[in-house]
Amino acid sequence: MPDEINRRHFEVCVLSQIMLELKAGDLYIEGSEKYADYRKQLITWEDYEMNLAEFCKHVNLPVSGTDFVRKTQQDFKHVTSQTDQSFPRNEQVRIENGEVVIGKLKKKKVPPDLKKFEGYIADNLEPINVLDMLADTEYWLNWTRFFGPISRHEAKLDNAVERYITNAFCYGCNLGPTQTARSIGSLDRKQIAWINQRHFTVENLDKAIQYIFNAYNQFDLPKYWGDGKRASADGTKWDLYEQNLLSENHIRYGGYGGIGYYHVSDTYIALFSNFIPCAVWEGIHILDILMNYKADIQPEIFHSDTQGQSTTVFGLSSLLGIQLMPRIRNWKDLKLFRPCKEEVYEHIDELFSGEIDWDLIETHYPDMIRVAMSIQSGKITPSTILNKLGTYSKKNKLYQAFRKLGRVIRTMFLLTYMADEELRGTIQAATNKSEAFNGFTKWLFFGGDGIIAENDREKQRKIIKYNHLVANCLIFYNVFSLSRILQGYMQDGNNYNEGLISYLSPYVTAHINRFGKYLIDLNRTPPKLPFEVPVAREKSMFLAK
Q1: Calculated CA dihedral for residues 519, 520, 521, 524, nearest 10 degrees
Q2: CB neighbours of residue 391 within 10 Å
Q3: Which of 78, 279, 297, 530 is a Cys-bridge partner for 228, taking CB atoms 3.0 to 4.6 Å apart?
Q4: Which residues are registered as beta bridge partners of 513?
């Protein structure tokens, strides 16, 4: 030990270490919301023992760590062997200097009669404005019933349905209370802002959103687009003012803002939304959709881009019965691991650069299953545990076990991705739907230059939910309109190839009037033009004073 230390340097070292330990979850603050002990949020070991067999049966996993490792090793060897055997016949994939190079997907041939089919639909879509669209979906679904006085003590509103629709339009399209009051005229800006504060919450907005996509799932048309078993997660930057304390500069997108993070079903409807900081790795939030217990659409396969995955996310997903299938770029930055050091492969052996610590996975299998069971029971959100099990947790054995397991699952996925061209096409199509939804939802957010003006994170998240609600209402309305047009087309004695339906999308906007109707009243007489009216006192008057 030295005789003296520099106090300032010592304090920096101690505080830096405390910061890292808090982020890793190895140190906690009693009573803190963000830095509490996450272990207390897990189910007890008694509950674990009681429900283990039922949970493992539900997600098709062995009960014991030994059986799990044996089964995973067998699956790993099978996938690796198949990829190696099929590699010589794989014309789209080659290996250069130890790196995988995958060719572009072949373009699907567009049916020759698609253009005529789309033209007929476009000609028969009836024009409608956003407010009428919201009113129609409310008439069918009564989604405004989820809103009401938060305190439960206030009197009910007069014309509540009209006010709730107006409020959803105001905040979902970003007009703001002042502009909405000017445009509609039946409410003033204070009334609109008051309803937002006293009658709408993130929770009841989520309930309305969920009810709408449950109703959407009853249509026949979306079943031509997907079976609801797949969902794609993607983030898009929403602009905030630079002076906002919660605004961050995004490296990829550029500019200041936050990330709207959405899960979009393969049937096009948006299932889940969140608003997260730019600096957060998006994959941390990819599993939060699992907290939607009452949703009729429960995806089992998640797609995303590179930001939506990591080894810990792969590991946790596999224990929750979720298949993670992202579109990953920059393969050269990822390591592939061989099932065991004895295994040697004829065609793809040079891809592998590491081995798996199976003993660590087997030892901590009960701890990992306990985390998965806690998430399923609603005791803790996936993002909470993934935030803790990040790169700051290198000393944490639970983090290491999830990471080792994730290496196995990700390597198996990457090998399957290499070998299966159809899978690559499916993933590409799913992520394209997410990107299309991002553009669609921003198209609806046309007020205020598309900038979220709120300075509070909860209010910003609320704006994202409003916009999500309006977007889902329009998707629902469009599917209703498309279904009616297709039915009328058949009733007129026309026939068409049902395969054309898969090329349609509910993100059509050409028939939507966002800005209302403006009328010219030529009978209105303006005041006379006052060219010679003085606007200041005469100079002599000023000089006299």
Answers
A1: 130
A2: 13
A3: 297
A4: 129
